[in-house]
Design a protein that fits this description.
This protein is an alpha/beta fold and about 425 residues long. The protein contains 20 helices and eight strands. The protein folds into two domains: about 170 residues, Rossmann fold (3-Layer(aba) Sandwich), CATH 3.40.50; about 160 residues, no CATH class. Helices cover about 55% and strands about 10% of the residues.
């Protein structure tokens, strides 16, 4: 489905809801920055936000196109990976004045999330100038932040404009292109989780959004060879798929169409990496690798011979011991979230027994681990690198405890319920 069609919304959907996405402009093309004077003409005090790398990518031409409307520029000065935490938020808020009338971010994931959050709490519009086809969050309503050591997604508004120059995108670091591809390929896993949550918990599901997301995924699968060559049309198509998925998230008001067990594992590797000072892959690459693992988990669950032999069991002391071992400094925050949800007090196994045939049909309706591995290798990623960086223990812990960072039901909960 074309982005222009998605931007018009869907007033009457079969799911019973009205879907809207109030983005004014999505400009993905060569010479996209030429549009900036026209679409910023009504703003007189623009705050431009970037980090050193993203400013280097296209800060000069964007600054030139903004002209006298540009009032202030914040360039995060860090040699390390910029973390969207309280420190970064406060630094951005300090640059917002009563006169500021528009925030424009130059970057991808972190810059986008910081600008999205601060613009929302400041009641200001924001634009994003994309520097890499690396994330599906450009058009989403959620801002992914790390607050008090926890990965959280806070409600925000979509950008009023997304501007992406293809010549900038195709020259992004290749791991950023791999990350965008991986983020989309991971939708096979998260869409299966959405179906599973619908069966197990009766969670709301929109078939239109699901089908449109699948369409974006299938289009992306065909792009791998062109992306490896940095072909402009392939990179443009990937960016369009990422934006389309973001709009579909905005349609349902959360990230359910684009984030499931594979994303929870990715968040786990990131958070544990930050807490322990250990390396981790870019988000979308972790998603891609993790989608292979969630496929293996589904295969393991499908191998269960007799579901009637299983019963609910939960050893709280052992659980809290493992959470403390894994999450160290943020143990209290993880436990507080799960205590608030109360999901460990729920008997889901009886639901699994009752609906096992329907559940198995859902679990089968997803690419196999071998198929996911093949898709991963198409973009030049090696699963061996994933195993080498994290090791068997950290990956096994992710299978059981990545779910505890989030408040969303996925196959990881079923795996814990039945295999722990």
């Amino acid at each position: 489905m074309e982005i222009k069609d998605l931007l018009t919304g869907r007033e009457t959907c079969e799911c019973g809801k009205s879907h809207k996405c109030p983005i004014d402009y999505v400009i993905i093309s060569e010479n996209a920055f030429d549009s900036l004077p026209e679409i910023t003409a009504d703003y007189k005090n623009i705050l431009l936000v970037a980090d050193k790398n993203t400013y280097k990518a296209c800060g000069a031409p964007v600054t030139e196109k903004l002209g006298e409307g540009l009032a202030d520029t914040l360039i995060y000065d860090t040699e390390e990976v910029l973390v969207p935490n309280e420190i970064a938020i406060d630094e951005l808020r300090a640059h917002v004045t009563e006169a500021t009338d528009l925030i424009i971010g130059i970057g991808s994931g972190v810059i986008n999330d910081l600008c999205k959050h601060v613009s929302f709490i400041s009641h200001l519009p924001y634009y994003i100038v994309a520097t890499a086809p690396s994330i599906d969050g450009y058009a989403s309503k959620g801002a992914a932040l790390i607050l008090e050591g926890m990965k959280v997604t806070l409600n925000a508004d979509v950008p009023k404009a997304i501007i992406a120059d293809v010549n900038v995108l195709k020259n992004a670091p290749f791991d950023m292109i791999q990350s965008g591809y991986g983020d989309i390929i991971g939708k096979y896993s998260c869409l299966n989780d959405w179906k599973l949550a619908h069966v197990v918990n009766g969670e709301y599901l929109c078939k239109f959004v699901m089908d449109a997301t699948y369409e974006a995924v299938e289009e992306t699968v065909r792009l791998a060879d062109g992306l490896v060559r940095r072909d402009g049309e392939a990179v443009k198509a990937l960016m369009e798929a990422l934006v389309a998925v973001g709009i579909l998230m905005a349609y349902v008001g959360n990230s359910r169409p684009a984030s499931g067990s594979e994303h929870h594992m990715s968040h786990y590797f990131e958070i544990v990496g930050i807490v322990r000072g250990e390396k981790y892959f870019p988000h979308g690459i972790d998603v891609c690798y993790s989608a292979i693992d969630t496929a293996k988990i589904r295969e393991e669950l499908l191998a269960i011979d007799n579901i009637d032999e299983y019963a609910t069991h939960f050893d709280r002391a052992e659980y809290e011991k493992n959470i403390s071992r894994i999450y160290t400094d943020i143990t209290d925050e993880v436990l507080a979230l799960q205590n608030k949800l109360g999901w460990y007090d729920v008997d889901r196994v009886s639901v699994y027994r009752e609906k096992w045939d329907e559940i198995k049909a859902v679990l089968r309706d997803c690419p196999s681990s071998a198929e996911m591995l093949a898709l991963t290798e198409k973009i030049g990623l090696s699963y061996d690198s994933f195993k080498a960086l994290y090791g068997e223990k950290k990956i096994a812990d992710a299978h059981f405890y990545a779910k505890d960072l989030k408040d969303r039901y996925t196959v990881l909960w079923m795996y814990y319920d039945l295999m722990n």
